[in-house]
Amino acid sequence: MNKRRSILPAARPDWAFFLDVDGTLIEFADSPGAVHVDDALLGLVARLHRTCGGALALISGRCLTDLEQRLGSVRIPLAGQHGLERRDAGGRRHAHATPAAQKRELRQRLDSLVAQHPGLLLEDKGLTLALHYRQAPQLAAWLHRLLGRLIEQTEGLQLQKGKRVLEIKPAGFDKGSAIAEFMAEAPFHGRIPVFIGDDVTDEDGFARVNLLGGHSIKVGAGMTAARYRLADVPSVRDWLAGAIVEQGDIA
Q1: CATH number listed for the domain at residues 100-170
Q2: What is the pTM of this model?
Q3: What are the start-end ranges of the H helices in the chain?
């Protein structure tokens, strides 16, 4: 779907906000560890969390420990590794089972692959494996075919495609399932959900929010199921800041 309404609706304090991180709240970097989470963003997220009564969660491909380290003292609900793990509004952690033996075997094969091709980066997030090729984009088509064949031979795993990254993860879980789990809990339950994301990994979240009658927002160009669009990371921050101003939360 590529049809979108041109004007975002005015934000309301009784909505439930779900926000992707990389490419949505922060700019991409050459490697996952090189991204910068600035104080202005931390303050923005903390104020929005208060404005909506705690009904705000970050929905990321990053693991929970990575998100927690980058957020510092900002304590909000989180979903990591595309919905495989969550920290709910009460601070409780949830994780879905993963086929560990298959993951170990694939890790060994991908380690060998990375050693042969400079520019590739393998990130082991605990429950998933992410092969980044941002610094070797010429390998994209070959890597897609190669990892596609590997996944076809491995039961219980699926290939998640993203922006210059291929992620191997357990099947059946995604950002949409993470949103659904949050929406079944307080303080999210009964609210209109909003999800903002920039990547193909966010399309499951857009689809889920659309089914729930919420507001799906795509960042940047490209075909999408989202109903609205924002141009870039600064536009996302400006829109969120505007929502807080409307609630009188910024001095």
Answers
A1: 3.30.70.1020
A2: 0.85
A3: 39-51, 64-71, 100-116, 140-152, 175-183, 203-211, 233-246
